[in-house]
Design goal:
This protein has 13 helices and five strands. The protein is an alpha/beta fold and 278 residues long. Helix 12 packs across helix 13. Residues 1-70 are annotated as: Disordered.
């Protein structure tokens, strides 16, 4: 009797969680529990994985690529000038070039001494003049002045430009101004220095047109005396095929300053020489 009650009591008790169902239950119970126990554990989703940090390294530039980049960025003066409107030169432009040229080799006091007085500058060309009309404006007493000039190895007026070809163009455009004045070509193309020295020694020349390099060489060889010089005109505003002015060309600019050092600065300070920017 006790055993029957014990079996009956045990059957009426709820099965504990996870405990095996007794062998007297429904068919398939053992199979379902087996499937639950042996069910594969799902793998964690790939989306839940932490992303790995990734660092991209920039490829190193080769020397050739660097040089190509630099060449591409560098702008030529002709490209810059082509996009800008032409502006007439002013005395301040020349003063600034003088300061820039000598700033690395002169002291502050010496640079101050190179400042040219405003009185030595003539009216600059406003880009509306021809050469003859400009010279007539800055030198209205030219006829009287040339008649009184009798010194050899000298000129009354010098016109400096960047090349022999440009000098010939300027000489042709002087017809309306020069009158009976004697004009001399002062450049190196097809003309030797000795020949020019002899011409200056034997003739009275009123006006010289040429390049700063040849003019400087004539002064150096004592073939040209700058003391009687009254007017020094720079062909300042004219531009060549590359849109460069004469002072934009390093070689020409260097020769101009070497010539200025050979007595032009002193003549300007004494106010016996006037400077013009055509």
């Amino acid at each position: 009797m006790a055993d029957d009650l014990g079996d009956e009591w045990w059957e009426n008790q709820p099965a504990a969680a996870g405990s095996p169902v007794p062998s007297g239950g429904e068919e398939g119970g053992d199979t379902e529990m087996m499937q639950q126990d042996t069910a594969p554990v799902p793998e964690p989703s790939k989306e839940t994985k932490q992303p790995l940090e990734c660092f991209l390294t920039q490829p190193k530039e080769t020397k050739e690529e660097t040089q190509k980049t630099k060449k591409w960025k560098k702008k030529k003066i002709s490209e810059i000038l082509a996009k800008s409107e032409p502006k007439p030169g002013t005395p301040g432009d020349l003063q600034q070039l003088i300061k820039n040229h000598y700033s690395g080799s002169r002291s502050v006091i010496e640079l101050e001494e190179l400042n040219l007085p405003d009185s030595c500058f003539l009216k600059a060309n406003d880009l509306t003049h021809s050469l003859s009309s400009y010279l007539k404006e800055i030198c209205p007493k030219w006829v009287k002045l040339r008649k009184t000039h009798s010194e050899k190895k000298s000129v009354l007026m010098l016109i400096m430009c960047s090349s022999a070809v440009r000098a010939l163009e300027l000489i042709r455009s002087l017809t309306a101004f020069k009158g009976d004045a004697k004009v001399m070509k002062l450049f190196a193309k097809h003309i030797k220095v000795r020949e020019q020295v002899k011409l200056l020694e034997n003739r009275v020349i009123h006006l010289g047109v040429g390049t700063p390099g040849r003019i400087k060489e004539l002064v150096k060889q004592d073939g040209l005396n700058l003391s009687p010089l009254k007017f020094l005109v720079f062909d300042w505003n004219w531009r060549d095929q590359k849109l460069r002015r004469m002072m934009d060309i390093p070689e020409i600019r260097k020769e101009v300053f070497e010539l200025l050092d050979m007595g032009v600065f002193n003549l300007c300070k004494s106010e016996s020489l006037k400077l013009g920017l055509f």
